[in-house]
Design a protein that fits this description.
The protein has strands at residues 2-5, 10-13, 19-20, 31-36, 39-44, 51-53, 56-57, 62-64, 68-72, 76-82, 87-93, 100-103, 108-110, 115-120, 123-128, 134-136, 139-140, 145-146, 152-155, 158-164, 170-172. With 173 residues, the chain is mainly beta. The strands form 3 sheets. A 12-stranded mixed β-sheet has the order 7-6-9-10-11-12-1-21-20-19-16-17, with no helix packed on it. A 5-stranded mixed β-sheet has the order 3-2-4-5-8, with no helix packed on it. The N and C termini lie close together (4 Å).
C-alpha cells in the first residue's frame, strides 16, 4: 500500500495532514519535512512527545543526509529514503506499520507496478511502462489515466485501487 503526495513541504501527524500516521505519542501536526538548498530538512512542530532523528531528539530544523530513521514520540518510527526525484517514507512502527508514502514534485516511480505517477494540477496521473498491460475497470488503456476516487486498475497484473486524490495525501493501493 502506498500513498502519493505531489508536493513538499509535507506535515506528518495524526490529523488532517499530508502524511497521516497514527500512534499514541503522535501529535496532530507532529513534524514537517521540506526541501532545503542542500537537501531535506525535518523539524518538530512543537509536538508533545518530540521528534527523534537516529535516536536523538531534535529541537530545531535538521538537515537529513541519505537514508534516515525518524521517530515520532516513542511508538512510531519512519525510514526516510531520498532519491533524485522523490522521497520515500516507510512506516516501520505504530498503527500504520507497512504504509509507504512517496513524495515529490516530478515523476514518482513505482517499480513494483512498472509504472509512474505524475501530478497534473494536483491530480495523480498513472502511466504504465511501455509493453506493460494496463486496464481501468476492465478496459485496456493505451494512454496515461487521471486517477479518480474509486478507480480500480490492473497494471502488469497488480491490482490498484484509488482511495483518495486531490489536495492532501493521494492514497493509492
Amino acid at each position: 500500500r502506498a500513498s502519493f503526495v505531489g508536493r513538499l513541504p509535507a506535515v506528518i501527524g495524526r490529523g488532517e495532514v499530508e502524511i497521516p500516521v497514527r500512534g499514541t505519542s503522535v501529535s496532530r501536526r507532529h513534524a514537517e519535512i521540506a526541501l532545503a538548498p542542500h537537501g531535506l530538512v525535518i523539524r518538530d512542530l512543537d509536538s508533545r512527545n518530540g521528534t527523534l532523528v537516529r535516536g536523538l531528539a531534535i529541537s530545531s530544523a535538521l538537515e537529513l543526509s541519505g537514508a534516515t530513521e525518524v521517530g515520532l514520540g516513542d511508538d512510531v518510527s519512519l525510514a526516510i529514503t531520498p532519491s533524485p526525484d522523490s522521497l520515500v517514507i516507510d512506516v516501520r512502527g505504530g498503527f500504520d506499520r507497512g504504509e509507504r508514502f512517496v513524495l515529490g514534485e516530478g515523476a514518482l516511480r513505482m517499480e513494483a507496478l512498472a509504472a509512474t505517477v505524475t501530478f497534473d494540477s494536483g491530480w495523480g496521473v498513472l502511466a504504465a511502462d511501455a509493453g506493460v498491460s494496463f486496464e481501468l475497470e476492465g478496459q485496456k488503456c493505451a494512454l496515461p489515466v487521471h486517477l479518480l476516487v474509486g478507480d480500480r486498475l490492473l497494471v502488469g497484473g497488480v491490482a490498484v485501487e484509488v482511495l483518495q486524490v486531490g489536495s492532501g495525501a493521494r492514497r493509492d493501493r
